Amino acid sequence: LALTLGWATMPAFTTLPGWPVVLLAGLLVGVGTRLGNGCTSGHGICGMGRLSLRSIVATLSFMAAGFITVFVTHHLL
């Protein structure tokens, strides 16, 4: 089942992750939120808006990890 927006058609999902993957992903998000003392959007929007050094460093770390992950998965693997 494809999604049509009038000017573009989004491809249909062909595979979905199984429940163990979904549960593991949720667990990792919870652990990361606890270790980072807040969620990514909380640090990025509220923390940086307050000029919190902790939030600035956390947001830069999240962004760097995302850039590295995309580079590795799209260019090296």
| SS summary, helix count | 3
- Low-pLDDT segments, ≥5 res: none
Strand-and-helix sequence, N→C? EEHHH
Shape: extended
Structural class: mainly alpha
Going across the biggest sheet, name each strand in turn. Answer: 1-2
Largest sheet, in brief, is: 2 strands, antiparallel
- Share of residues in helices: 55-70%
Strands, total number: 2
- Percentage of residues in DSSP E strands: 5-15%
Query: Oligomeric state of the chains?
Result: single chain
Radius of gyration over all CA atoms, rounded: 17 Å
Distance, first to last CA: 30 Å
Task: Average the pLDDT over all residues and give the rounded result.
Answer: 86
Characterization of the model:
- With 77 residues, this protein is mostly helical.
- The chain has helices at residues 19-35, 40-49, 53-76; strands at residues 3-4, 9-10.
- The chain has a two-stranded antiparallel sheet with strand order 1-2.
- A hairpin with a 4-residue loop joins strand 1 (3-4) and strand 2 (9-10).
- The chain starts with a strand and ends with a helix.
- The model has no long low-confidence stretch (mean pLDDT 86).
